[in-house]
Amino acid sequence: MKKLILAVLSMLLTAGVAMADTNIRVDGSTTVLPAMQKMVEAYMKANPGVNITVSGGGSGNGIKALIDGTTDICMSSREIQPKEIDASKEKGREAKPMAIAMDAICPIVNPANPVSNLTAEQLQGIYAGKIKNWKDVGGDDKEIVVISRDTSSGTYEAWNELIMKGEKVTPAALLQASSGAVMEVVSKNKFAIAYDGIAYVNNKVKPLKVNGVAGGAESVANKTYPVSRPLFIILPGSPNPDVQKFVDFIMSPTGGQKIIGEVGYFPVKK
Asked: Which domain holds residue 149?
């Protein structure tokens, strides 16, 4: 009998510990993902009772998950659309965006490509399928292989807004489901071009200047770089206290904002 009582007490204590744990779900943009993963790691290390799961299925999918109530925080590399705000209100989870970083979207090519600068007009022409050969923009006499993010990506939508300006992306573009996939394709194809958030750019690809300006902290801050955008988290109305504590960490100059800078994006608070 004594052993039975001890066993029951042990189970109750274990259940109590489990109930005391905090579980937070984060979903959305693969652009925001590298910074979010590092912020989650740091926060969980400092708060052992908190469990945060992160998945990056794209900004559109993250916003849908927020509306449906299957995530607590959405990562987004684009502005939330009015129809999405309306849908969140209908579900009683009024979406509230918060800018956590600034980003430069960089056109990228293979390091073997001699091109180092393109104008915004040339980029639009390439992605609309009107410029098809590298020789027309100062490169080799080779066909341009156009790589793009897929339509669920906030980076795709930002590129459409900032570069395409109403022009449609050519159907010949090869769509990729993640920022990592984009980098991998370009690193292996000498004649490919793509675009990605600056934090993903590594020595396997070469970022191009746009209108003669390189993407960086200064050019983004003074708005001379033409392909920059804010990065967001989106919350479901008033978050619960546990989620709010994590949000406070994200916005802390010595916490999440410091990590955002270390990853390669540009903090909004210093």
From this structure: 104-228
